[in-house]
Amino acid sequence: MLSFRRAIQLGIVLRLGLIIYGEYHDRHSALKYTDIDYRVFSDATRLVWSPKVSTGEIVASGWLSRRLNLGLGDPYERDTYRYTPLLALLLIPNEVVHPLWGKLLFSICDIVVGHLLYKIFCQFPPLQYPQHADDKTDEAAASAKRSQFQAQVESSAVLWVSAIWLLNPMVANISTRGSAESVLGLLVVSSLALLLSGREEFAAVMYGLAVHFKIYPIVYAISVLKWLRIRDPRGGLWGTGWMSWRQIRFGIISAGTFLALGLAMHAVWGYPFLEHTYLYHIARRDHRHNFSLYFYPTYLSYPASDSTTPMPSPSGLSRLLSSPLLSFLPQMGLTELAGYLLASKIEDLPFAWFVQTVIFVNFNKVCTSQYFMWYMWFLPIVLPRLKMTKTSAFYTLAIWIAAQAIWLSLAYRLEFLGEQVYLPLWMAGAVFLVANNFVLVKLVQAYVRQ
To answer: Which of 44, 262, 395, 440 is least crowded, fewest Cβ atoms below 10 Å from its Cβ?
Structure first.
């Protein structure tokens, strides 16, 4: 039987093997294994570490940087770097140790996420402890039953965490190609694990850091506040019946962490930090094909001068459908409603976060397969709690795969064959959205009915 230690070891070997293979592949193939984002991160780190002022490159423009002459460069001089400078700082060993440092760091984060998922699974097992009358009279028998149950829980945890996360080739592939999603995953799952273990102050710090790293985890705030209220059923402040010191403390610490990090980054890098890390994503208009229902209206409303592909003149309807407000309202409304309704019991918080993330990704104005990682790290602790027949599970999975396969086949025709299939691709995206939401409804039903 596979132990968790052996699963960790195999997960490490898998990722090291893929990193080594990636180096070989990049040297011998025109189609690179390394993700383009990793090159963006590395270039941004190089700009921060070696600004080379004498060649005219721009140094960090914040007031603190100018006053103390920190000698740090501006990562935003690298086109398409839309992340916190914290990521560029984490990758400084790329410059001073080895260019593969970032991939190793992301892989380590993967392994730690797996460890945390295992701990959460064992803390809140989906299996119910069998109660027997003789447990009260025979302590030895009761102790044996508890040990047997714990062994069953740990065995189940190893199976689920290994299959979905530690030994999943897709998860390992994303990190070893150089995607930084595993860093965000570590921050989010750490916040969840700390909350579930009762260390709420540390959870608040980690949550503030997660929101700083990428703004979307802020959607979890409503489910966290609801969950904290359930843990503290005493009367609220000023007789309101809904606000408690527990909620206020979490809010102050998490918001304080977020603001402190933001102020520090702004003090060093100035307005470019705000523009590229946060403001850009609010007004972002991406006309490149992706799963989102909004990609085609955005494509039609995009100025022709901004694209190498001839585009038709935008209509009023296209401009309306591509507006950020139209995509934001249903996305946030459904996400927050789901978080509030589903965080109804102590052990429900992981499922609430999972559903919120799926809704957020489904209705986001830009949706790529990389975003699926945002909810994949909840699957090992969510799926075992679902009550579905094998037939229902099979058809649910088949619908999701079929909808994705249809979209991918059309995307291949557009990107690699050069066929003008924008409208059919958009229709496939609409089918994918419907299929995703159908699957999500089935999962919610399977969870609620347990």
So the answer is: 395
Angstrom distances, CA of residue 223 to CA of 193, 227, 252, 277, 339? 15, 6, 16, 25, 5
Length of the chain: 450
Place of tokens 């009260």: 136
Average pLDDT over residues 403-429: 88
Residue 431's domain comprises 283-368+381-448
208-237 pLDDT per residue, tens: 999 999 999 999 999 999 999 888 766 555
pLDDT at 448: 73
Highest mean pLDDT range out of 7-21, 60-74, 120-134, 302-316? 7-21
CA 248 to mean position of chain CA atoms = 26
Q: Is 9 a member of any domain?
A: no
Closest CA to 83 of 331, 281, 324, 373: 281
Type of residue found at 448: V
| Contact call for residues 349 and 90 (beta carbons, < 8 A) | no
Could you give the 3-state DSSP secondary structure of residue 59?
strand
Looking at the DSSP assignment, which residues form a beta bridge with residue 73? 59
> Using CA atoms, how far apart are residues 226 and 243, in angstroms rounded to an integer?
9
| Cα–Cα dist 276/253, whole Å | 25
Which position has the token pair 């609220």? 236
Residue 103 lies in a domain: no
Instruction: For residue 73, give the 3-state DSSP assignment.
Output: strand
pLDDT of residue 90: 96
Over the range 87-123, which residues count as b (16 or more CB within 10 Å of their CB) and which as e? Answer: bbbbbeebeeeeebbbbbbbbbbbbbbbbbbbbbbbe
Distance of CA 130 to the CA centre of its chain: 36
Q: In sequence order, what DSSP letters do the residues of 350-381 get, joined into one string? A: HHHHHHHHHHHHHT-SS--GGGGHHHHTTHHH
Q: Which two tokens stand for residue 47?
A: 């700009």
Q: Cite the DSSP H helix spans in 4-163.
A: 4-28, 36-49, 63-68, 85-90, 93-96, 101-123, 139-161
Tokens encoding 344: 């109804």
Q: What is the CA radius of gyration of the chain?
A: 24
Domain count, the chain: 1
Beta partners for residue 59, in sequence order: 73
Does residue 423 sit within a domain?
Answer: yes
In a domain, 316, yes or no: yes
- Decide which of 237 and 342 is more confident: 342
Distance CA 21, CA 13 (A): 12
DSSP-derived secondary structure letter, 35: -
Q: Are 406 and 431 in contact (CB under 8 A)?
A: yes
pTM of the model: 0.89
